[in-house]
Design goal:
6-stranded antiparallel sheet, 23 strands, Alpha-D-Glucose-1,6-Bisphosphate, Chain A, domain 3, 8-stranded mixed sheet, alpha+beta, TATA-Binding Protein
């Protein structure tokens, strides 16, 4: 079996419910092989014969089955295991700090449908890179027997209790309310939408004990069927849901998490949505206040207005690549070279603060925002005021084109090369100077008055087109020109551009 197909960026993902004949079905055997291979990788990396590994999971229906397979493989191969049960992904990393675990395994597929699941591995240095996952999967495929002859111990551990305490202490110290230090959020009404993922703890175990009114909160109970909406801050219906809930409750602040709480977004007073570029701008403003004249790393699809905003607030913007590990690794690289980089963030809601172990943690991000919101409330202001100078596009659009062949990367690169050539030939087009992924082209007023980016998806056989315009009708102008270029491709039959043609029509 080709285990390499389970690689999804820096994670392992596949199907965990339904037909076991699916080539990407995460059977117990596959899970045990991958877990045994991770343990071997961990022992080799640490040079230790006896290691300790924590295991946790999100609310998915397949979580318990997969957890049992992971633990079975680990203890039989000589690992001491902490069974952390229902946990957020960032909390599982924190076990390497607080419990001195050598490694951690989180069972999650983030915001993906309920029939998917996956494995995410951590060491004290953070999440593994894609090359590490490739090595682990290669060794998993070559493993003859995932089960060893040992029988080490498995210890139940409610680490979420400690993780919640860490966040509470952070708010108490950050707000520093002299009148009622233990209830710094008294008088604040905060709505939390956990989307039936893991994030319900943030309302009940972090906010409520500090005095916040959480009465308008939604979908706090874990339910792997995700019956109400996709647990995804990028999902328009999910954002609309938390916005309406915040308005209905007359809340000061609204919060939404993805399934495993490594991503988040929020809404301000009146349901004003703060996600994507707005959220990056808000986090950047707070990060730059604590670390002036520093660099903010973002993914490749952030707007020109965001770049201006970061510069206006005394920062340098480095627009890098899509993929949370890419932006975090760039952040770490900059810090090691002596360039201060307090924040690395994707528009998807992954936000890693250097002060927090370079960990993308949705709960930590929201905690930072709540501390700021509490300070602003004393001045009669809200978080919205911090980003009122953010210039936003008039239009924005994302289109996806599936590459219809197995060896998709070369075909995708050919399409990108067409646009690299066109950028030098088409009047009104100019390639952006800071291209780190695909090709980003600035279009003048005659060609749509904005920019577009053509890139390969991080994980899938898909070409992604992101576009923004500063005028009504600008994106349709750009898309017509984009069609003229893409339609000249030699193997156009290997690319489904129906999304583009339908949009133009």
């Amino acid at each position: 079996m080709d285990y390499s197909k389970f690689k999804s960026g820096s994670d392992i993902r596949g199907y965990a419910l339904g037909d076991e004949s699916n080539p990407l079905y995460m059977s117990d055997e596959m899970v045990m092989r991958a877990s045994a291979a991770f343990l071997a990788w961990l022992k080799n990396r640490t040079g230790k014969k006896n290691v300790c590994v924590s295991v946790g999971h999100d609310s998915r229906l397949s979580a318990e089955r997969i957890k049992n397979a992971v633990i079975k493989a680990l203890v039989s191969n000589g690992a001491r295991v902490f069974d952390c049960g229902l946990s957020s992904t960032p909390a599982m990393f924190m076990t390497t700090v607080e419990l001195s675990c050598d490694g951690a395994v989180q069972i999650t597929a983030s915001h993906h449908p309920k029939d998917r699941n996956g494995l995410k591995f951590f060491t004290r240095d953070g999440g593994l890179d894609g090359s590490d996952i490739a090595e682990i999967l290669k060794n998993a495929g070559a493993t003859e027997d995932a089960l060893g002859a040992k029988n080490d111990e498995c210890i139940p551990c409610d680490f979420m209790k400690r993780y919640s305490e860490i966040l509470r202490e952070m708010i108490i110290d950050g707000v520093d309310d002299k009148a009622d230090r233990n209830h710094p959020l008294a008088g604040m009404k905060i709505v939390v939408d956990a989307g039936n993922g893991v994030g319900g703890f943030y309302a009940s175990d972090v906010l409520a004990p500090l005095g916040a009114d959480i009465s308008g909160s939604l979908y706090l109970d874990p339910d792997g069927n995700f019956p109400n909406h996709a647990p995804n801050p990028e999902n328009a219906a999910a954002m609309e849901c938390v916005s309406k809930a915040a308005v209905a409750a007359d809340a000061d602040f609204g919060v939404i998490f993805d399934t495993d709480v490594d991503r988040a977004a929020c809404v301000g007073k009146g349901g004003f949505e703060i996600n994507r570029n707005r959220l990056v701008a808000l986090a950047s403003k707070i990060a730059l206040k604590g670390c002036p004249n520093s660099t903010i790393v973002t993914d490749s699809v952030t707007s020109d207005g965001l770049a201006e905003f970061i510069k206006q607030n005394g920062g340098t913007h480095l627009r890098f690549k899509r993929g949370y590990r890419n932006v975090i690794n760039k952040q770490i690289e900059l810090e090691k070279s002596g360039t201060k980089c307090p924040l690395a963030m994707e528009t998807s809601g992954h936000a890693a603060f250097a002060e927090n172990y370079y960990l993308d943690d949705g709960a930590y991000l929201i905690t930072k925002l709540i501390i700021e919101a509490a300070a602003l409330a004393k001045e009669g202001k809200s978080l919205d005021n911090l980003i009122e100078n953010l210039r936003e596009p008039v239009e924005e659009k994302e289109l996806r084109f599936k590459i219809l062949c197995d060896d998709f990367r070369p075909e995708g690169e050919k399409i990108i090369s067409l646009f690299e050539k066109a950028a030098t030939e088409n009047d009104g087009w100019c390639a952006a100077e800071d291209n780190h992924e695909g090709i980003r082209i600035n279009a003048d007023k005659s060609c749509g008055n904005g920019w577009f980016l053509v890139r390969l998806s991080v994980h899938d056989p898909i070409i992604v087109l992101n576009a923004e315009s500063d005028e009504t009708g600008g994106i349709i102008k750009m898309c017509k020109d984009i069609y003229d270029v893409i339609s000249t491709a030699e193997n156009l039959d290997k690319l489904d551009i129906s999304a583009l043609t339908d949009f133009i029509k």
